[in-house]
Here is the input.
Amino acid sequence: MQKTIGYAAHNQNSPLVPFNFERRDLTATDVQIEILYCGVCHSDIHQVRNEWGNSVFPMVPGHEIVGKVSQVGSKVTAFKIGDAVGVGCMVNSCRVCPDCQDHLEQFCNAAEFTYNWPDKHLGGSHYGGYSTQIVVDQDFVLYVSDKLELAAVAPLLCAGITTYSPLRHWKVGRGDKVGIVGLGGLGHMGLKFAHALGAHVVLFTTNPAKIEDGKRLGADEVVLSNHSDQMQQHLAGFDFILDTVSAPHSLDAYTALLKRDGTLCLVGLPDHPHPSPSVGNLIFKRRRIVGSLIGGIQETQEMLDFCAENSITSDIEIIPIQQINEAFERVLKSDVKYRFVIDLASLKS
Ligand SMILES: [Zn+2]
Ligand SMILES: [Zn+2]
Here is the structure.
């Protein structure tokens, strides 16, 4: 067992505080990673505050992990000490079910998520990336290109793949008109990817202060979604809309903007349901509302490689871990451009 320090919540009302725990000794197929940076995902806050009702404490959050390999098990061939690597939202799955066979481990019934999930090796819960090191099976470790700034890669492991996967699955590309709803951690990655894939990209936001940034990040147009005249101009105009907003809101305003057979894809998970959508909006033009959950390991690697080729990373603000509780409050106020990333050197000194 290996002594590790992290930051944990001890109940749903407590701030994150320093926490000592142990990682398992390496099995033959394990990789030990010295964590250098970890992104702060909105779902960390949902889980720390038990807003999805499944939280187990103490909880060390963090599933946007990048670092360097510090040790490898005897049968690890894919990684060597010193490699730059990442770990996202999953650390294991069954490997044999139809979902795993199709490289869609995120849908495996036995998928193990990176934290707040039962740990089959040690009992208790998996502990995440707000910590100095992690031990993960090699099949769930990803290569990171040394062309990219490591801290700015961290958010790709959740915010990146969550937006890349649906854009690829629904085959967004040149000639498509694509909407991105919300400019936060997910939305800013959605803009970059949709732009890089060659689509005509429209950002929907309620905040006029975000117009300029939206254009800088890849939007061809910005629509203020609370101005109905601006929304009216885009009726039945979109092939695909990616809705990244997790606060409950009406979906009808967006389904009305889809062309025949257009798709509204939801990737934000609200703690209370959205209002029931208008069925008429769906059946009259055979439109559909779909959801998407991160991406499989193979596709996550493809996304990281795509980012290396296209020089795409996240826009980040680096913080020491001692500022994490303040950072949570700022995320809730959308006061971050566009992802906080914890520099774990602050936990080692
Ligand atoms: Zn996340
Ligand atoms: Zn499986």
Residues 2-158+315-347 form a domain with the Quinone Oxidoreductase; Chain A, domain 1 fold (CATH 3.90.180.10). The pocket of zinc ion (ligand 2) is lined by residues 93-94, 97, 99-100, 108, 110 (CB under 6 Å).
